[in-house]
Amino acid sequence: MMRAKAWRCGCTALALVAACAGAAWGSAGPPRATDLTELSLEELMGLQVTSVSRREERLFDAAGAVFVLTREDLRRSGVHSLPEALRLVPGMHVAQVNNSQWAISTRGFSDRFAHKVLVLVDGRSAYSDLFSGVLWEDLEIPLAEVESIEVMRGPGSALWGANAVNGVISIVTRRPRGETGGTVELGVENGERRGTVSREGTWGERSAWRFWGGTGQVDAQAEAGGDSAHDGRRASCLGLQLGRGLAQGDLSIDLGVRRTDAGQTTVLPALTPPYGTPVEDSLSLSGVSSLVRWTRRRPSGGSAQLLVFAEQSHREERLATYTVNALDVDFQSFVPLGPRHDLLWGGEIRRQADDFRNDPVYLSLAPARRTVELWNLFVQDQVTLAGGRSHLTLGSKAEHSEISGWSLMPSARLQVELGGAQSGWASVSRSARTAGRAEADVDGAWLGTVPAPDGVPVRLIGTGSRDLDTEEVVAWELGYRVQPGAGLSLDLAAFHHEYEHVLASCSAGLTPETDTVPYRTQLVQGCNAGTARAAGVETSLVWSPSARWRWSAAYSYLGFTTHLPAGLDAWTGSSPRHMAQLRLQGDPRPGWETDLALFYTDSLPHQDVPAVLRLDLRLERTLRTGLGLEIVGRNLLDDRHREFGSSQLGGIATEVRRSAGIALHWRY
Amino acid sequence: MIWALLALLGPVQADMASPVSFAEEYRIKAAFLFKFTKFVEWPREAYQAEPGRHVFCIYGTDPFGPVLDQTLAGKQVEGRAAVVRRVRETEELRHCHLVFLAAPEEALLPEILAGLGDAPVLLVGESPGFARQGGAINFVLRQGHVRFEINPRAATHARLKIDVQLLDLAEIVGPKGMG
Predict the structure, then answer these.
(1) Selection from A122, A125, A79 nearest residue A102 by Cα
(2) Which tens digit of pLDDT belongs to each residue from B137-158?
(3) Residue of higher predicted confidence among A655 and A538
(4) Chain B closest CA to A328's CA: distance in Å?
(5) In chain A, what residues touch B9 (CB-CB under 8 Å)?
(6) Percentage of chain A with pLDDT > 70?
(7) What is the domain range of residue B32?
(8) Which residue of chain A has the CA closest to B27?
(9) Which residue, among A32, A52, A56, would best test binding to B if mutated, counting the most B CBs under 10 Å from its CB?
């Protein structure tokens, strides 16, 4: 949501960590309808290897704090929205503000308006250049459509670009696999109903198609006082995917349409007490997108990929109505150079043309209509060192945005096999967060009204600044992994981030004015206010005592300090110091699955949120091959609790409540 | 809205195990790894260390991701539970019954063979020349189909007995590259 908020303290680090090579996946479910082991040897030999499918390629180098949520993890968790799925990632702080809004971050800077973590969907950035961040309500992807979520905590800018400051979340959606079949999922939970369908098939020898659709409806939640928060929501989306194998590669085309209508309560600032009027507002989001991807594999082992993405999206609410036309062209090439070097290089051009409808009283941009162009180049070399037991990865990205100018983001990573199924890694990287239109172009944004000591109301008006320095971070990280055997694996990561030129809102002038009442106007402008430091550790443990049971546990600690002028720091106390989770996946008997998840999140003093302990339970029974019935209970320990505070402009926080639901999954 | 979407589904396949004519390369290979164990006999002492388990190991680079675990989940070989391990040390390979070496690990085959000696381990690979150099079974792609080469001498050296049914379907490879 593009609001004056952008230059307020508030960074959301999305860092996703992909699991290291060799983590035990250990999922033990009943066999599926398309279980290939049921075929005879001759039948197996008769199968055609589909060239339109994508292998399970690991997106992130293991020389980093990486974690992967596979399709099995997502299915077993019982969650059905993308933000909730991120809660399963160690070190990830996920807080629900209300039905549509989330505060998601890692390693500090938790905020409703996250802009320190990059989110990729199938390789293209889901970043909004308008407000310079990711709005989770804009990402309308049903969880049933997600194949995996790979997360890397820590700066990923050398490869993934600016704004991958605290990490990268890569969402990979399901693709046609050259099989014939489909799925249907229907679910009902307290005040919520959802359904998704998908169907795929082949056509000709080398082509495959897939169609999917999803819809969901959520009833409005209740505020603490019992009033409705008017945040009911209804969302639908449809997609069509086509894939074709080529002589030495493949081509895929994805088309998608989405539409969300939600209610929300927006607080409009006023000059008279109580200085803010809550009004019932509605939020309307819609979008049409297309993604074309062409990959080519070379006989020498190299490959190249070209991606073209185009989207038109529209947003309408009381304080911000705009249309964005985005075009993204991305090229990557992987070139093995001899036995010791693997070179990866590429570039991207991104153009976002947005048209903002100005409101002279509350929020306007100058110019209202603008096209922002961004382009970047990157190169990375992975060097195999003596004996093939360690790898050194050196890389850098150079990015130019017309708002922020140039940024250079280098990184160096070292990974070493230590023997005995142990490996260690270390890295140092520099990353930057570029400003968006929200920082540069705001002409006048009424942020709120506060009474001065003499009783005269002071109107806070935010304006943009074109002289901002880019926020930077230098990160030092260290990691260790071991698989001592007996189904056990342990992952440790430690980090130290130094942030410079941290953006905050500074006062820029106070002028007296008169209208129906005398008041003053306090100009607030984005400024580079100071520095911040984040240091901590993240650990996760997986233990599979047998093929039927799997324990996973994670703990993370964050020490966060800032050197900012008093009153400008909204981040200290907005991210939890300790987070922990414990999960158990079990298959007690054939045809039965049980899952338990316990999450602990420390208190957020600045958001006035106490520590939360949350328990989710899930039970699934396979009724017949491919058909399962699931019962889920969420937030079982609390009748209700808050996870985050309200934002200054709109976005009233509601409480998350205990709920139970059932769902039917059918795969044919 | 949900019902409208369901109507678009089209005719439902009456046969639940719908015919699959295409599949992913590694799903096919995972199914083969399981099938091979039905046609190969290990000597009794191979199970002494862990009697209830039949151990499938992936050495080094893992091209399967979750696919092998999903394929073997809940499966049994001669009444023993199929388990998957990822291994980085050559010394640990003798505790496996079947070891899969992905293409990037091909160069390590001679070292692995030397280390294993005549230990009862079925080595399966997917690189050209794997079987000729002494691996027991090697996956090859022929016109988009997954086929396999078998080196019977390598299997005999490891004290493994391969069923004639499997040999008949394989391309037999001798130690001097007769293929």
Answers:
(1) A79
(2) 999 877 567 889 999 999 999 9
(3) A538
(4) 30
(5) 182, 184, 197, 199
(6) 87
(7) 24-172
(8) A36
(9) A56
